[in-house]
């Protein structure tokens, strides 16, 4: 599944996505009922990448969806929020400072991965005129956002040390506030 010609890592970290995160319809109680549902609900999220506008993407989705509905079917769309995409380039001084911090604490260079998410990163970078960098210290089997999510305490404590080291690294980097483009 997914975009042809792209790896899983590319699709999840650097490409736009449309994800079905919820779907309900019909009878779901105990026993069986042979009914045709009168309503259905679907929850979809879109993860944007740089140079995509949330307002334009919403309009494109609306204009794509409505003509698909058969005659007599009503569609209501509720929007719960929009967040603009953000990206701090890998060669930005702040990313280099974060990499040095992790290398000092862990004794080896970090594996840099673009990761999608939803949050105020774009607004923080724009309003503060500063780069946004995340120091992720989780492990692949930490089950991020799952009911059994965890973090290994050694990773947690090292992460705190790395954040402390990051402050020193940023203070020693003259062009740290260079705005990400």
Query: N-to-C terminal Cα separation, in Å?
Result: 32 Å
Number of helices: 5
Number of strand elements: 2
Q: Any idea of the CATH topology of the largest domain?
A: DNA polymerase, domain 1
Number of structural units classed as domains = 2
Q: Kindly name the structural category.
A: alpha+beta
CATH architecture of the largest domain: Orthogonal Bundle
Largest sheet: 2 strands, antiparallel
Amount of helix = 25-40%
Provide the β-strand percentage band: 5-15%
Mean pLDDT: 89
* Rg calc: 21 Å
Instruction: Output the helix-strand order.
Output: HEEHHHH
Report the CATH C-level class of the largest domain.
Answer: Mainly Alpha
InterPro entries: Cyt/Met_Dipeptidase, Peptidase_M20
Keywords: Hydrolase, Metal-binding, Protease
Pfam families: Peptidase_M20 (PF01546)
GO biological process, one term: proteolysis
Characterise this structure.
The protein contains 5 helices and 2 strands. By secondary structure, it is an alpha+beta fold. The chain has a two-stranded antiparallel ribbon with strand order 1-2. The two termini are 32 Å apart. It has helices spanning 8-13, 54-65, 93-106, 121-128, 153-171; strands at 17-25, 40-47. It folds into 2 domains: 8-68, no CATH class; 93-171, Orthogonal Bundle (DNA polymerase, domain 1). Helix content is 33%, strand content 9%.
